[in-house]
Each structure stands twice: as C-alpha cells, then as structure tokens.
C-alpha cells in the first residue's frame, strides 16, 4: 500500500466568506481519512481589500498596490487558519507533513485561442506561509496546467474520484458531481473510474450571479435558504436570452471566471423574480451541459454552498433525469470538501502524481503541478 501522509488543505473561494482548513490523511490515490476541520471567516476589511485586488486585476493593473496589500493579508489569514486548526484539533506542527495552499483567486482567464496562453492568478505567498507556520507548503497548483495550454480548472475531479472509490459501497453506475460555488462545474466519473477517464468542465454560473443580485438589490450576501427565489417567478424570456451566452455552446474541457456572466437580462425584474430566474439559469446551464458527457450519469452528488439552497436543489431535481443528493447524503463532508481537495492535491504533488488531465482541463497530457516550499528547520 502506498505511504499515507497527513496534510492540511486550505481553500478560500470566490464568495470571499473566509478560509476553510481541513486535515486529510491520504496516499494521494484511493485512501482518504478525514480529520478535523475549521472555517475562519474573512474580516470585513479583508473582503474589501480582496475586492479591490480583483478590480485591479480585471482592469489589467497587475502591479497595483491593492494587489500586493491583499496578497499579504490573505497569507496572514491562512496562517491564522492553520494555527486555529492545530489548536482546536490538539495537533502539533510535527504531526502535519504538508499544507496545500490554494490561495485567493483574483483572475481566471483561460485562453480562447489554442495559440495563446491563458492566465490564472491566485494571490498568497506559499513561501511566507511555510516560514510562518513552520510546516512544508505546496502552493500554485494551477500554473503548470495553464503554461502547458490547459484551462487551469477545474482541479477537484481527481479528489471526487477518490471520494467515490472510498465509499463503503461505490456506485454501480456513472456519477456526476456538481460543485456549486461561485461557478458551477461538473465531474463525470464512469463506474470504477481511473483518473484519466474523468471528464470535467465549468458549465455556467453557480451561486455567483444570485449572490451578486442579492447584494445589489437587498444588501444581503446570498439568498438565504432560497427564500427570495421561492417567492418569485421565473421570467422565461430573460432565461431564454441568458441561455444564448456563447460559452454555453463551447465544447469542453472549458472553464470560467466568476465574472464572465452578467445580470443585464434580469435588471428590470423584481428582487424575487430576479432570484428565481437566476437560480433557474444555474440549473438550466447544468441540465444543458449534460449533452457534452459520454453518457447521462445514473446519479448526481451536489457539493459547494449551493447545496444548502433549497430553491437551487429543487431546480436541479426538476431538470435532471437521475437522482440528485447532497454531499452529506452521499456520506461526504460538504463544507470541508474543497479544503480536503487541496490537502489531497498537495500529497499528489509531493508524490509527483498528475493533478489534471486532458479531459478535465484540456492539458495536452496528464499534468503534475504545485510549487514546494520547505519550512525552516
């Protein structure tokens, strides 16, 4: 049996809600054992700082002081998350072999032209994290994939495959794993899948548009419990117009930036009808993207924050032709899954195993990745 390592994974998503930190014991292949986990919210000031960095990046101001400031603050927030997790779990630094540090995405621009390189940018200093925590760190997971011509996302498919393989009764059919973060993506895993068999792509907006709509119209960060969408009616004309977005017709592998979709078609709607229409749009993008899969999955598992939105789950169950369950109903830890994923990827990186594949990111071959930072002795 391959050697297992104990890793901490760190993830801060585009929702900017904070840092998820989780312990995972894994061999980087089929063995996964879940350990303690914590969530450390971003402060209001840090959210503002990161939003300013995102604005600068989107405007092409790469050297902006706002980006450097946010990078330092993001790194310190992740140091705090590691310290918090160690303290709560009663673990010592020597108990941890490696930290997988995703960083905070401020720009994701995959290439639309095969002759040009795309770009993905996660801020946060892996070397500084290793120095401050005194634990070895793997960071910068996506860059090698992009340099080789890949999309740089999604990167969770190999961990989804490991979770499916580790289930007490692995599914006897193809499974689709839907991740509903700021963006929605799908992992397709045939029965008894090998990593090279996986198919994955971003299929449209996840919670990002609904969150943006709620903040614009109500000041709330999200549609809590789907209440706004459930009180509204889907505007079919607006939905039809949104489904004409060219990205939705592109053949996978493909990936998105959270800011690639706009609210233009719902701006004249009431807060309730806008939330209902945007929720339906996310579900419809997932439904329509099934045609890109080798075959329709026999079941779906929903991860990410969107699984907590009853309106979103109801829309998915209505639009998809197979059973739809949440991560928890499948026996997974939905709140900790993305952090666990980067613990898993850090171990794969140390073992020089691929992190991405041609059918998950459009990389030309199975791609290794990650930058290793040794902690001071």
Task: Name some characteristics of this structure.
Nucleotidyltransferase, domain 5, 2 domains, 7-stranded mixed beta sheet, 35% helix, 12 strands, 12 helices
Short description:
This protein has twelve helices and twelve strands. With 377 residues, it is an alpha/beta fold.
Written description of the protein model:
This protein has 377 residues and is of the alpha/beta class. The protein folds into two domains: 5-154 and 335-373, ATPase, nucleotide binding domain (Nucleotidyltransferase, domain 5, 2-Layer Sandwich), CATH 3.30.420.40; 168-330, Nucleotidyltransferase, domain 5, CATH 3.30.420.40. 35% of the residues lie in helices and 21% in strands. A hairpin with a 2-residue loop joins strand 7 (175-180) and strand 8. The protein starts with a strand and ends with a strand.
Please write the string of helix (H) and strand (E) elements: EEEHHEEHEHHEEEHHHHEHEHHE
Tally of separate helices: 12
CATH architecture of the largest domain: 2-Layer Sandwich
The secondary structure category is alpha/beta
| Integer count of domains | 2
CATH topology of the largest domain: Nucleotidyltransferase, domain 5
What is the percent of helical residues?
25-40%
Poorly predicted runs of 5 or more residues = none
Instruction: Estimate the global geometry from the Cα principal axes.
Output: globular
Task: Average the pLDDT over all residues and give the rounded result.
Answer: 95
Strand content: 15-25%
Q: What is the CATH class designation of the largest domain?
A: Alpha Beta
Alpha carbon gyration radius: 20 Å
The count of β-strands is: 12
Distance between the termini: 30 Å
Q: CATH superfamily of the largest domain, please?
A: ATPase, nucleotide binding domain
Major sheet attributes: 7 strands, mixed
């Amino acid at each position: 049996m391959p050697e297992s390592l104990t890793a901490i994974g760190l993830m801060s998503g585009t929702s900017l809600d904070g840092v998820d930190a989780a312990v995972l014991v894994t061999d980087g292949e089929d063995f996964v054992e879940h350990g303690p986990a914590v969530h450390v919210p971003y402060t209001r000031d840090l959210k503002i700082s990161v939003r300013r960095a995102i604005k600068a990046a989107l405007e092409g101001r790469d050297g902006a002081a706002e980006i450097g400031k946010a990078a330092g603050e993001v790194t310190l927030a992740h140091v705090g998350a590691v310290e918090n997790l160690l303290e709560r779990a009663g673990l010592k630094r020597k108990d941890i072999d490696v930290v997988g540090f995703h960083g905070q995405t401020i720009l994701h621009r995959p290439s639309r032209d095969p002759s040009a390189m795309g770009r993905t940018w996660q801020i946060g200093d892996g070397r500084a994290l290793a120095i401050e925590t005194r634990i070895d760190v793997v960071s910068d997971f996506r860059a090698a994939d992009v340099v080789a011509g890949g999309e740089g996302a999604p990167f969770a498919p190999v961990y989804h495959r490991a979770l499916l393989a580790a289930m007490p009764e692995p599914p006897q059919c193809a499974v689709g794993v839907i991740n509903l973060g700021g963006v929605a993506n799908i992992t397709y895993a045939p029965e008894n899948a090998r990593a090279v068999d996986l198919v994955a792509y971003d299929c449209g907006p996840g919670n990002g548009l609904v969150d943006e709509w709620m903040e614009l119209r109500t000041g709330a960060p999200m549609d809590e419990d789907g209440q706004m969408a459930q009180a509204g009616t889907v505007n079919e004309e607006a939905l039809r117009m949104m489904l004409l977005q060219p990205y939705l017709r592109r053949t996978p592998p493909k990936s998105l930036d959270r800011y690639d979709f706009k609210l233009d078609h719902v701006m004249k709607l009431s807060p309730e009808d806008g939330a209902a229409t945007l929720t339906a749009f996310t579900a419809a993008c997932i439904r329509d993207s099934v045609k890109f899969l080798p075959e329709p999955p026999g079941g779906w598992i929903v991860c990410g924050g969107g699984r907590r939105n009853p309106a979103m789950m109801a829309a998915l169950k209505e639009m998809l032709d197979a059973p739809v369950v949440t991560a928890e109903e499948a026996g997974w830890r939905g709140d900790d899954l993305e952090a666990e994923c980067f613990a898993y990827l850090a171990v794969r990186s140390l073992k020089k195993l691929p992190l991405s594949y041609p059918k998950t990111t459009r990389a030309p071959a199975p791609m290794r990745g990650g930058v290793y930072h040794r902690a001071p002795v």
